[in-house]
């Protein structure tokens, strides 16, 4: 299993199949082309996951990646936000997948990071590195926010930064993350939903084609086939 495939699996919503194949995941941690410290970190992450109850792990994933926007694994959330450009970016990315012989499940958003990593795991190393270089700042910011929140996903995201080119200034991003207000608190979530309340008539925003801005409450299994 390539390192990108492995990191993608570990960042994805933890379904019960992970516990059924725990031994394979642990073995994969020892086989990936990383430094010994990084392999130990991956193994530690997997072991911690396997030692947890699946329902607890799933609830923790939702609390981490599905509350607020700052830890979203939807890449265009960080690039385009609410901009109309996001819809076109989605279309372009789907077309890129298709040109490489991949078809997405109709329920999956193309900018979901674990999905992109699965795609990149099938591409030449130079192309995968270029993609990771372009999203390096996003991965670095996610790593910095994860560190600020004392989440176990930090090494997974830092590995992506390193796989791109490793030139992202993680220290500067950690400082920025430490100064950011949290957007996953109950108060922040209440305010967000108030702002996104459906409006009708003259007050309705003209954004008929705006794509969804957050991952589904229960992520679906992705089906990307070469």
TrEMBL record:
Query: What does the entry give for GO biological process?
Result: chaperone-mediated protein complex assembly; nitrate assimilation
Pfam families according to UniProt: Nitrate_red_del (PF02613)
Q: Which UniProt keywords apply?
A: Nitrate assimilation
> What NCBIfam families does this protein's entry cite?
narJ
Query: Organism's domain of life?
Result: Bacteria
Which residue ranges are recorded for the region named Disordered? 200-226
GO terms of molecular function: metallochaperone activity; unfolded protein binding
Q: What is this protein called?
A: Nitrate reductase molybdenum cofactor assembly chaperone
Q: Which InterPro entries match?
A: DMSO/NO3_reduct_chaperone, NO3_reductase_chaperone_NarJ, TorD-like_sf
Q: Which organism is it from?
A: Stenotrophomonas lactitubi
